[in-house]
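Render this sequence as a predicted structure.
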Amino acid sequence: MTSVLTAMLFVPGGDERKLAKIPELAAASFILDLEDSVAAGEKEAARALVAAAIRQHGGGRTLYVRVNSLDSGLAEDDFAAVVAPGLAGIVLPKARTAADVVAVDGLLAELERTRGLPAASVAVIATIEDAGALARAGEIGTAAARVHCLGFGAGDLAAELGIEWPSPDGILSPTILAAKAQLVLASAAAGLAPPHDGASVVLDDLEAVRREAEESRRLGFGGKHAIHPVQVAAIEQAFAAGFDELARDRAIVEAFERSGGGATRVGGTLVDAPLALRARRRLAGAPPGLPLAGVRVLDLSSLYAAPLIATNLADFGADVIKVEHPRGDDARRWGLAKDG
């Protein structure tokens, strides 16, 4: 199943129109960006816009802010502007050493204290973007308890290594894949949550985005950034445990328990303790106690009454697949209209 942080959608911090759309977007978590998407002369104005967005939308959405890197000389002003009620966390770009995280932890602790926020309430995702930081990933991730997980930035690493990114054929370089795997292993060794993958820059091929997200999931990542709202569903789909996977996990756990904890066979697979543990962990992420969990519903209806019932069935745990005419459900054209 997916979590709140599975697909984190970037929103340019200097774009007031896009920030205002946060309540309308189909994403559970956002990264309000003060770094790459904001020109040098617009940083101060962007801080004010992001601070206003946190006040307005922080209660209903999980909002992180990507600040400027520590070596830019801008990060301290970023923290001062955005640390307030409604801020869930900070995305720290170009985290290079444990000292970077310790410095950020100290800044956040002081701001939390002076602004009446609970201690360590602002989480940190420390982004690994160069080879040296990758070698120190475990130290960086454990430098402060507020680090939720590590992030991965392929663009800067590829530039450092002289690797083409994104690749024209949509296939990631083996070196980038190896770096991702190293980050997953370092996170696990340090006892951290699975790392978060950086965004795909592909905008016109959602199938490519989904494949890249599925590859990240297979490597062991816990989620992926999105740079456009259309990417969110593809990422969530890639990271979600499907109906068939959950059914197989239940079969594995039940068979392992019937065997008394010994190795057993499920279908054509030998199930031992590690496989049973993985199945239990995935099932633990599924919504508990929903009466229709495990039921698949095919919704071929349109307009109002039947789709509403299908929605209710999904609320009770059913796996609902809605099929529409190519023009879309007619109900999508109801409601307020402007300019026709």
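Summary. The first strand starts at residue 7 and ends at 12. The chain has a mean pLDDT of 89.
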